[in-house]
Amino acid sequence: MSQFQNFSSLPPDQEATFAVYEEHVATSTKKANTFGLAAGIGLGLLVIIIAFTVTPKHDDPMADPSAKKTEQLQK
């Protein structure tokens, strides 16, 4: 807890009461960063898996629309 001392202009005995809160903030920040990193990696893997497993539909925007209708009617 020595790293959380002397961070305000209060007397040392009053500053020591804030050390507990500063330590709590430091540990909470570390936990939040770890959780955020894990969530980011998980989301990134999910996006990569979806990108490689889903086959896109290849529609040619320049194709003749009447040809599509005849293909559908023939099926």
Summarize the model shown.
With 75 residues, the protein is an all-alpha fold.
Overview of this structure, please?
There is one protein chain. By secondary structure, the chain is mostly helical. It has one domain (2-55). Helices cover 69% and strands 0% of the residues. The protein has 2 helices and no strands. The protein has helices at residues 12-53, 65-74. The longest helix is centred in the middle third of the chain and has 42 residues, at 12-53. The chain is rod-shaped. The mean pLDDT is 82.
Rg to the nearest angstrom? Answer: 30 Å
The 3D shape can be described as: rod-shaped
Structural class: mainly alpha
- How many individual β-strands? 0
The helicity comes to: 55-70%
Tally of separate domains: 1
| Cα distance spanning the termini | 76 Å
Strand content: under 5%
Average pLDDT rating: 82
Which residues sit in consecutive blocks of at least 5 with pLDDT less than 50? none
User: Describe the biggest sheet?
Assistant: none
Which SSEs are present, and which pair or pack?
Layout: H1 12-53, H2 65-74
Primary descriptors:
single chain
